[in-house]
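Continuing the batch. This is chain 6 of the set; chains 1 through 5 are on the previous pages. Same settings as before, nothing changed between runs. Recording input and output for traceability.
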Amino acid sequence: MVWIRQTTVMAKSLHDFVSAALETVQEITPEDVVEAQKSGGYTILDVREPEEFAAGHLEGSINIPRGFLEVKADLEHYKRDERLADRTQNIICYCGGGHRSALAAKTLMEMGFDHVLSMKEGWTGWTTRELPTTLD
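Output for chain 6:
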């Protein structure tokens, strides 16, 4: 095997990726999400892992882990999720603390979704405020 040395590139941290995502992604508070749920018309997308979702989640949310998002949102992939076919739907992404959801929202925007938000503080912020959760 031949190894080719890459040009020296400054390594990026999670903070760097999230900061870059937040330059284009709008964050909303858990309280804003409560209001959005009341008004309807939003797809609440939980991008945490299945075991995190099973331990509790926002009522009515759908679970598509961050690692499968591009596959599930792709219009041509055979494993696509039809709930993500409409690029004009309003989507609010959330995760454990707000990092994965910011990255997920940026990805969805890059895939052509028009209205994507990320919930600031994620599940941690939601549960700290003792907002309603479900185990369905």
